[in-house]
Design goal:
alpha/beta, six-stranded mixed sheet, about 15% strand
């Protein structure tokens, strides 16, 4: 397949959001090196000049104009080479749907210092520009909020979208003409979009009009198994229109304020039959030369990819703050903080990581020793700062005051939350300020979902590295760190094995030396929450599965022995189901105040899963199914 094509360089670039100056400098270096390597075409990713996830900065016209003007620098650099790159294109004569200058998320094509014009393309767009056809309208994508799609342009012009789907032509050094089509990211996922009573497949049209290859320029965030799904989609599309496909993605991280969104690259060359011929190494900047003969890089397993994703997200904070950050971690001696401090040491180096343990009389010697051991082995600077005196003083103060109308009730929960807030709002925040450190949030997704955290206590910090990992995944990552990354027991085995149970250690009722820990059924609740958060299931769905005898299979958790031990009767199980549902609903107020979360799953809290504070409502069918379930027995 590649013998009939020119030498093509695909650049998997680390795109710095809102830094076109840095991105263009990088692009110019790659253009020079690609030309020197004999490439006749060099291809960059979607919005590689501006960055993609910029929020409402896209409403700042002066900034958008500045982004767009950088395209001229790349055009000037396209001597003796054809350059394909993504950038915003502006139409000053028309208004976009946001009431500002019309903007297109577009592919730009230039060669020998000029933009490539195409015959038979309707007037109105600059030469060498192909706008994105399909705008994603889900998760954290906001293309339609800011950009004008090719589909909208066609509708407004009374034309077919395919009137613009004309191949580009470029003369190669040997005199041959090379014809190719271009797409942007979502355009390849056309099976979900209808047009004229069929799918809106621009690849098919480019193929039918003589294109010899298709280039898809993407800014496609990583989540587990997304790449495998894309491979299946490409193979399916190519069955109808066999043509070589070059998929170019970027690496690095961008953010929308509440989420840090990571990009793994996975730049891929597909044969006309959808076979993977080349694949870039994930998570790192590189050039793929399509005639290099190198075999495609192997795919990662889930935990290895999660490890790299978290590293990428953590390193993004250096770009955001334009400095080498130093981090502070509150290490409790539990599994979550042990994983976070280990990940930070790998991401930025142990010399930039500081840790503090803040025990009271409720903290066992085993967990205090765990915290010390992890930091000692990682060579992280460690400090023990007991808070028993502060806790006693504040406890006495709160107990001793009352309002005229009510004496209040100093419960165990009040007492536990005092300790958590002293640690987070006072000690961690104070030490961070004193030493110029950024401190982390160590909560996992299971706790975040259920509200098992104290607002202004452990709901704090500048970044939440593992808040998109369920507890079972945190344990898997701990094993991976010990076995595959560190090569020795750094995270104590007593945590991974469950010998020391997960516990907040805030009262005698959470004494790990007696096996007392969190009120969460880890494993089972993790599986439930995945269905609720990522697949949008509600209690009526769980009841339906239960009465049909398929509950555990549907949630993907099959420890029947543990299930029976936890739920000796159906009423106990339903009470737990309703408790989980309520906890997820009522604790949104904590999640909305949580720090930015690194996105690792199909749906993460933040601006990925857009939640509202709403009253409880029971789907009418729920009562019928509940009554039916109560007439049954635990299987």
């Amino acid at each position: 397949m590649t013998d009939a094509l020119p030498e093509i360089a695909l650049v998997q670039m680390d795109v710095k959001p809102a830094r076109p100056d840095l991105n263009v400098q990088t692009m110019l270096r790659y253009i020079d090196s690609g030309r020197a390597a004999g490439a006749e075409l060099i291809v960059f990713s979607e919005l590689c000049i501006s960055g993609y996830i910029l929020g409402d900065l896209w409403e700042v016209d002066a900034l958008v104009e500045d982004f767009a003007a950088y395209s001229e620098t790349i055009r000037e650099a396209s001597q003796d080479i054809t350059v394909l790159f993504g950038n915003v294109a502006v139409d000053r004569a028309n208004i976009g749907e946001d009431g500002r200058i019309r903007k297109y998320n577009a592919v730009h094509v230039c060669a020998d210092g000029r933009y490539l014009a195409r015959e038979n393309v309707p007037a109105g767009l600059p030469a060498g520009v192909q706008p994105k056809t399909l705008h994603p309208n889900y998760r954290f994508f906001d293309d339609d909020r800011h950009f004008y799609s090719l589909r909208k342009l066609a509708d407004a012009s009374g034309r077919s979208v395919y009137d613009w789907t004309q191949p580009f032509e470029v003369r190669l050094r040997d005199g041959r003409t090379f014809r190719f089509g271009v797409q942007l990211c979502e355009d390849i996922w056309c099976q979900d979009y209808g047009y004229a009573e069929e799918i809106l497949d621009t690849l098919r049209v480019f193929h039918n009009r003589g294109a010899q290859a298709l280039f898809n320029l993407s800014s496609s965030p990583w989540t587990w198994q997304k790449n495998a799904k894309r491979n299946r989609v490409v193979r399916d599309i190519l069955r109808r229109s066999p043509i070589p496909v070059f998929y170019v993605n970027q690496v690095g991280a961008q953010n929308n304020g509440k989420n840090i969104i990571v990009f793994d690259g996975d730049t891929t060359v597909y044969s006309p039959q959808g076979e993977i011929l080349r694949r870039a190494q994930p998570w790192r900047e590189q050039t793929v030369l399509c005639r290099s003969g190198e075999p495609p890089a192997s795919s990662q397993d889930e935990i290895a990819a999660i490890y790299d994703a978290i590293l990428t997200g953590l390193r993004h904070l250096d770009d955001v703050r334009e400095r080498e950050n130093r981090f502070l971690v509150g290490v409790s001696g539990g599994i979550d903080s042990s994983v976070v401090v280990s990940m930070l040491a790998q991401a930025v180096g142990p010399e930039r990581v500081f840790a503090v343990n803040m025990p009271t009389r409720f903290n066992a010697s085993i967990t205090q020793e765990n915290a010390k051991q992890v930091c000692r082995t990682l060579e992280v600077d460690y400090l023990s700062c007991p808070i028993q005196d502060l806790y006693e003083h504040l406890s006495d103060k709160i107990k001793g005051v009352s309002f005229a109308r009510t004496p209040g009730d100093y419960t165990r929960l009040v007492d536990e939350n005092l300790q958590a807030r002293i640690r987070g709002a006072d000690i961690l925040a104070g030490l961070a300020a004193k030493f110029g450190l950024v401190f982390t949030n160590n909560g996992n997704k299971t706790e975040t979902a259920l509200g098992y955290a104290t607002l202004y206590g452990d709901v704090n910090g500048a970044v939440a590295p593992i808040a998109d990992l369920y507890k079972v995944q945190v344990l898997q990552l701990a094993r991976f760190l010990n076995e595959q990354v560190l090569g020795r027991e750094v995270i104590p085995d007593n945590l991974i094995s469950g010998e020391t149970v997960p516990s907040a250690e805030l009262s005698e009722a959470q004494d790990v030396t007696r096996g007392l820990g969190d009120p969460i059924k880890y494993g089972y609740h993790d599986a439930m929450l995945r269905q609720i958060i990522e697949y949008r299931k509600v209690p009526v769905d769980f009841l339906h599965w239960f009465v049909n005898g398929i509950l555990l299979e549907e949630i993907g958790w099959n420890d029947r022995e543990k299930f029976r031990a936890w739920f000796p009767d159906v009423n106990t199980w339903i009470e737990d189901l309703e408790w989980v549902s309520r906890q997820v609903r009522v604790n949104y107020f904590k999640r909305v105040q949580a720090p930015p979360i690194i996105v690792l799953s199909k749906r993460a809290f933040g601006f990925d899963l857009r939640e509202s504070q709403l009253p409880a409502y029971e789907i009418r069918r729920y009562g019928e199914l509940k009554e039916l379930a109560l007439s049954m027995e635990i299987p």
